[in-house]
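A brief tutorial aside. Many learners find it easier to grasp structure tokens once they have seen a single protein encoded end to end. The record that follows does exactly this for Nitrate reductase. Read the sequence first, then the structure, and try to relate runs of similar tokens to stretches of the chain.
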Amino acid sequence: MTNSNGWIKSTCAYCGVGCGIEAKPTSDGRLEIRGDAEHPANYGRLCSKGLALGETVTHQGRMLSPSINGEECDWDQALGFVAEQFNSIIREYGPDAVAFYVSGQLLTEDYYVANKLMKGFIGSSNIDTNSRLCMSSSVAGHKRAFGADCVPGCYEDLEMADLIILTGSNLAWCHPVLFQRIKTAKAERPNLQVVVIDPRVTSSCEIADLHLAILPGSDVALFNGLLAYLAEHGQLDPDYITAHTEGFELALAGARQDAEDNNTLSCITGLSPQQLTDFYQLFSNTEKVVTVYSQGVNQSTHGTDKVNSLLNCHLATGRIGNPGSGPFSVTGQPNAMGGREVGGLANTLAAHMEFGNETQHQRISDFWQTDTLSNAPGMKAIDMFDAIDSGKVKAVWVMATNPAVSLPDSEKINRALEKCPLVVVSDCIADTDTTRHANVLLPAQGWSEKSGTVTNSERRISRQRRLLPTPGEGKPDWWIISEVAKKMGFGHAFYYQHEADIFHEYCKMTGLGNHGSDQRPLNLSGLSDLTPAQYHQLSPQQWPVADKSELHHHSQELPQHLPHKRLFTDGVFATPSGKARFVAVRYQPPASHTRKDYPLVLNTGRIRDQWHTMTRTGLSARLGEHTPEPYVSIHPTDAKRYRLNDSQIAAVTSEYGKATVRVDITQNVKPGELFIPIHWNDTTSSAGKVCSLITPDTDTLSGQPEFKFTPASVAPLSFRSEAILLLNTPRDISEFDYWVQQKVSNGYLYRIASILPPEQLMPRLARYCQYENGKELSYSGAENGPYRYANIQQQRLRSCYLIASDLQQQDVDWLNHLLDEPIDSSVERSLISGRVEGKLAGGKTVCACKQVGKNTICQAIKEQGLSSVEAISRNTQAGTGCGSCISEIQQLLDEQILISSG
């Protein structure tokens, strides 16, 4: 859909908020990006990652052509080879010897075709998705309680609630647009209360009225305590429980066992009795409550029980299906919900139809016209890679994801891929930790080239539209899968001319037998008769859409007044009885336990400006500036105990591996706990991959891995020198002991540490900076440095390095933009002296959206006497983009006030 000014409506490539964007191609092949003011997910807002989407559209690093065993080939050869190898393996070892590992980065149409090929025609259920890592515990919890995997509420409920509970969710960094919607609502209605439940102090605590820093893994005890409190104080809804639920007494009995002794409950959760009472009273006394939960709940060996413990509390009070009330699972990927709908998980069939239901199985067999539909769940992600490692699975097709980085126990995953006889990878990026293991590489379209649909966390389907031509020979994922299916002999079922054909088929499937006692909330029948033109023009639709008359069109009404569809408003659920099910759960400690050699609890998560394994956000210079290196957050008490200094390099070790990261000493984590972000990998760092540490323990029901509780140790590492290396092309610098790669304007910046002294490190770095001709600037200090060097040609910097025994106390952020700037005499002086002058002096980036640095903010505070974040924003523009940097601006303000007060 293109408007008269050339802006094309599409969707953001990142989290499950599903923000609408408008994009306009520029003359240099890039994209200008702005928020879509008409899209009901964001009403024009975008976060720092969304605003930088145009910077990540590049041909650099793209996979441009198919290849077999490292040799380029044409599409017919590659597709024929894959089909022949799959058929050969299936003939010899059976259909379960092959597997697909897919991704929430796929569009719904891609997902649908992949699931159809694997379950419907290969006849195995060995297709699973990286969404297993982020929301499968929610899926299992929803199905146990509601009878189907459904998020009941709408984003609108966040603005209508009187109490919002953020549990296991750093919404401010991971779903910033939703956080800004809550923040705005709270500013308009100060009586809106916010509770943050998180072991860490995060940016989400900025708006919290109550922060509950629970002990990792204790969520079930906390919510069981709440259920018992509600019963004890007469705060249940007995009419709702009787009319619309079953199993309440068993659930309450289990909850009371956990909450029988208030001191024990306090000990389990790490919260004081007063904190528990404050939270329980707040929930009890507030009618409109939304509980937003995410990975801190899901990524656990008991994640499903955690989900059901909080669902129990909403069911017991009837706070579900009503405006401003309900449990709300927010997903991590742009199409995690769409993948759940079509059957992308190994333990579901398709369109919310399930294994074990013979009627539904026959319906799908008839619809797909197949007699080989799989009849049992397949292997979930961790089990799948265990089977690859053991040799049970002989071939795996990885689509649009990077399991060599993102799955726990990375050493095992890489070992499994290395020994697997056939590894097929379809991706848009050529060099990832996973593509390095591939026998066959298939170039897929990237985000800006793909066309199809995605479904966000509030069940809203949006069109992702093609914005740019595809470089090289890249193809849509659905086309690649369909062509392999044809060559395997299943052509009659995969002759799609356009993604609209697939969408039509999928929507029609959701209506199969969807009535009476077999009625399923997921119903897109009303979208099944769209013409290709109508599909192309499709505006965001929230399911269910059972009739074409329910379609929303942009011209109908203002976006703020769109109809919002809540589920279960009538108290009828998708269970055989029509009643929601309470699930009796009991607190159980995490599967792993700290011990003498691993005394600390490692938690993992995202940072503000990066996404997953950085194959996309890592291409943006501005997104890399805020947090350029992997780090471990540790409390000052533990830092002192383990002889760690702030910003030094340390080794974090578990029984599964080791990571090498910077030390971040902070009060934001509690004693005994560590935090490391998930984004770095073997392509962007020497040893910053956190998943090399993570325990492979999983939830027995959901199969979701435990990313929030890994026993670990930490120890300082000694290096004799540190360096910054700035180059205009990427280089292999793996010879150095410690290194991190950061994309900067027109090049790459490498942070290096070495066991060599500066004078011995200098000649090794010099080899990367050798060019013919050009002006050379250099400075050599005493025997141990510092050493500085720059190579300039036609007033442009081609390379430079800085070496010292310690660079951490020096401002080096000014180097980030040097490759983008004409080199005048003042810049030359800075390169030689190390003292920053003029326009280079902005300092470390704080606001990625507006590119405002720390020095600029602090200078404005001091020189103009600014005393509020609002004043700083007006003066510097910092914080006027997505707003996720506001807590950091507040911290700088507090520090400057403290300094000025003496």
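Self-check: Residues 135-329 form a domain with the Dimethylsulfoxide Reductase; domain 2 fold (CATH 3.40.228.10). If you spotted this yourself, you are ready for the next section.
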